[in-house]
Amino acid sequence: MGVPENKISDTKMSIKNKSTSSELPKKSQIVWKNIFLLFFLHLFALHGIYFVTTIKFSTIVWAIFTAVITGQGITTGAHRLWAHRSYKAKLPLRIILCFFQTMALQTPIYDWVRDHRVHHKFTDTDADPHNASRGFFFSHVGWLLVRKHKQVIAKGNTLDLSDLENDPVVMFQKRYYMIFAPILCLVVPAWVSWYYFEEDLYVAWTTTCCLRYVFTLHATWAVNSVAHIWGTKPYNREIKPTENVFVSICSFGEGWHNYHHVFPWDYKAGEFGSYKTNVSTAIIDLMAKIGWAYDLKSATPEMLKLRRSRMEK
């Protein structure tokens, strides 16, 4: 399903809004709680790597499975469905994706979407939560270790989030997130491996919880950092987001980032039809075939050709 050409991109708005960027703060307020939590999480994840060659095959399969479903909670759910409304989903699919996103433990859908919409509207300015103009480390993880820039909060408060507020699935999750998310992410995977596969409980926890969680975090963060620094720019050379194959593989199809920032409403989040580097697109297409996903928005071949021809001039 195509969309009018006048919706080709919100990139112009992003470039225009660079004028809102002020000088970088001389000193950011460190959030020590996040530093300690991420430090120990990575420490246990490293211990999990040590056990990878000794754990049971069933535990490995379970860890990979949980990584995939939590990843889909972010890409297919929080990102393409709720943040960009690139397709619509019926209640059963929204509940499933919400469950997966809760298990991913990357903030509630409501907060995730708000920050992501600010990111797109004010890309790589002070109002961007993970502003790539502040360097690789900041855009990858540093933004989580300091207080948000005041522009992020100010611009976030101007967004219309009524679509989220009218979604009972999103609001239910927001209300009970801090109860369910830590349990689903850091307890249930290890318990399943220990109870059903008879894996050592500590080994199960460091691998299926810590190591798996750290991998999904870095896969998500790489879209904000790696895919804003290294890669090609076939659709808009004036912005930082790039096309990065490696990131796309690790993030189930989110690495075609130059395209995505030009066509943010495309449910594929990329221009290629192949599912090899875009697992999330394959899942949305499958859901469309069974009737759980509908009104899929996508750029037409004519729009892509026009955009590329502009870049060749």
From TrEMBL:
Membrane-related topology note: Multi-pass membrane protein
Gene Ontology molecular function: iron ion binding; stearoyl-CoA 9-desaturase activity
Domain of life: Eukaryota
GO terms classed as biological process: unsaturated fatty acid biosynthetic process
Family matches, as Pfam families: FA_desaturase
Subcellular location(s) per record: Membrane
Transmembrane segments: 35-53, 59-79, 176-196, 202-223
UniProt record similarity statement: Belongs to the fatty acid desaturase type 1 family.
The protein's name in its UniProt record: Fatty acid desaturase domain-containing protein
